[in-house]
From TrEMBL:
<dbReference type="Pfam" id="PF03960">
    <property type="entry name" value="ArsC"/>
</dbReference>
<dbReference type="InterPro" id="IPR006660">
    <property type="entry name" value="Arsenate_reductase-like"/>
</dbReference>
<comment type="similarity">
    <text>Belongs to the ArsC family.</text>
</comment>
<dbReference type="InterPro" id="IPR036249">
    <property type="entry name" value="Thioredoxin-like_sf"/>
</dbReference>
<protein>
    <submittedName>
        <fullName>Arsenate reductase-related protein, glutaredoxin family</fullName>
    </submittedName>
</protein>
Amino acid sequence: MELLNSTNENVEVFDLLKDSLTKEHLEEILSFLEMKPSELIRKKDTFFKENYGDKSYTEDEYLEIMLNNPRLIERPIVVKGKKAIIGRPIELIADFLKK
């Protein structure tokens, strides 16, 4: 967060765990990331494993799982204009903001 606050760049900061997330907003973020829901969900997370197991899901089902359990969304996500990245490691954020 410090890195984002110290820059003059126009970036969107959205706390996925505190702010409500709509389906439309999540779909928009996915398009900015150029990712499918199955690529953004944290499948190795203990909560995912315990509640969703090894079953196969459609992309729409992954989207619904993330909407109902935002903690399963990879984060942090940094959005700048119509582009976005998952900001790990933190060096990716600095490089992304320079572009």
